[in-house]
Every structure is written in C-alpha cells, then in structure tokens.
Amino acid sequence: MSRSADSVQAAPRGHDATKPIPRGLLAPAVYIIDDDEGAREGLANLLASEGMASASYASPQEFLRAWSPTDSGCVILDIRFPDESGLDFQLQMNERGIALPVILVTGFADIESSVRGLKAGAIDFLLKPYDDGHLLSAIADAFEQDASRVRRERDQANLVDRFATLTLREQQVFSLVVRGLMNKQVAAAMNLSEITVKVHRGSMMRKMDLRTLADLVRASERLIEMRLLADVSLNSTRRSR
Q1: Structural class in CATH, domain 165-239
Q2: How far apart are CA 100 and CA 149, in angstroms?
Q3: CB atoms near residue 204 (< 10 Å)
Q4: How far is CA 231 from the centre of its chain?
C-alpha cells in the first residue's frame, strides 16, 4: 500500500535502527482509518512502540486510493465520518473483496452498531478510549486471521499453477480418478490402454505434487470450488481422441 501523509512505518522489535529493514519484516501492517488526527497519531505511536508498521487515513476514500490487493494485516476503522458511515464502508470492503480483518472503534456506545459490525465480520468493536491491551489483543487475532487467509490464497495459487501444467489428457485422467474409477475403467472411458492411463496418471500426480488418492480428492475439491474442473468431462475425453 502506498503511504499516506501521516503513515508510520515501525521497525520490528530488536531491530538495529542503523541497518536497513528487510521489506518482508514490515508486513503485516495496521491500516488506521479515522477522521480524528489526534486519534490516528496516538494509535500510530502505540503501534510503533510495539514494533508494528502502520499507515493512517483520514477517510475511507483515502484508504481506498492507497489500497493494494497485496496488503496484509488489519484495518482499524472508526464508524463515524462527516460524509459517510464506517459501517457502510465495512460492507463496501466486503463487496470489493478487501479481505483485511476489521476492528471497529467509536467514541459513542451503540449496541445496534456493534451488533451490525460484528455480524458483518468485524474482529472486535472497541469504545474509545480503548484499553491498549484489549486493542493489541484484537490486532493479534486479526493478524492471525489474515495470515491464514494469505496462506490459503497462496496455496490456491500454487494449486492452480500446478494444475495448469497438466495436459488435457492428464486433466481428464485426474477428473475420472477422483470420481472413483480404477485405471481399467479410466482406460475404457478414454478408449486408451491401461498402461497409457498409468503413464498419464503418474505424470499427473508428479506435476500436482500429490502422493495419495486422498490428496488427489482434496485437490479436486478445491479446484471444483474454483470451477477449474468444469470443462473436464467424459464428453471432452472422447472428443480429444
């Protein structure tokens, strides 16, 4: 994410400030969206004291202009702005596919707003002035949740890349094997010899970096969720002869 005018980048704890900070150590970050400049500065200073990177924005729209799909960490979002609602923006984030976990904050106790925000997926809803320990605990939970998302997306990308290396025949063998067909049945369905099917199956397993049928089934479930197996069918198998 591009830095805003009042962004703060903090070095990790224990880092020698005289040495360059490896870029990877600056992620994840906390993205503060609050129209109260004093609140932004106070929170940024707290995070810096804890060795956390942060970037601050005076409005949701300012955040949107700087946001990148590669950002990781969490958002601390005030629910009230002069021209828009933080709760409405939380829904916009969901609609735009901005998957960063959200911690909502407000200076006004409002049960209805807290329920609405939590139902929309917020990690926590904190009343200003919030307890530092409670806030840091919520950030830790948010970072853990986002790290899981990043790992899941990376694993999905790797799976897609591996699947893309398969030939059409190997994709067809993949599709038939996960349906429970034995090599002999796959050979009959594809009008191939059983030996040829074994060759395709072995090549497919190596390219997909899979070891067992259970691994293959799990991979197929994820590919089906991403709709990458939709075109691999018995009909396409016979057409490819």
Answers
A1: mainly alpha
A2: 9
A3: 23
A4: 27
Q: Are strands 73-78 and 53-57 parallel, antiparallel or unpaired?
A: unpaired
Closest CA to 100 of 23, 10, 27, 155: 27
**What pLDDT is stored for residue 112 in this prediction?**
82
Most confident listed range (73-77, 124-128, 146-150): 73-77
Looking at the structure, give the CATH architecture of the domain made up of residues 23-151.
3-Layer(aba) Sandwich (3.40)
Q: Please, are residues 53 and 8 in contact by the beta-carbon 8 Å criterion? A: yes
Check residues 27 and 174 and name the one with the higher pLDDT. 174
Is 67's pLDDT higher than 90? yes
The answer to whether residue 235 scores a pLDDT higher than 90 is: no
d(CA 42, CA 89): 23
The H or E element that residue 152 is part of is helix 132-164
DSSP 22-51: PGGGG-SEEEEE-S-HHHHHHHHHHHHHTT
Helix (H) or strand (E) holding 113: helix 111-119
> Is the pLDDT at 19 greater than 70, yes or no?
no
Domain with CATH 3.40.50.2300 in the chain: 23-151
Strand ranges across the sheet with 73-78: 53-57, 29-33, 73-78, 102-106, 124-127
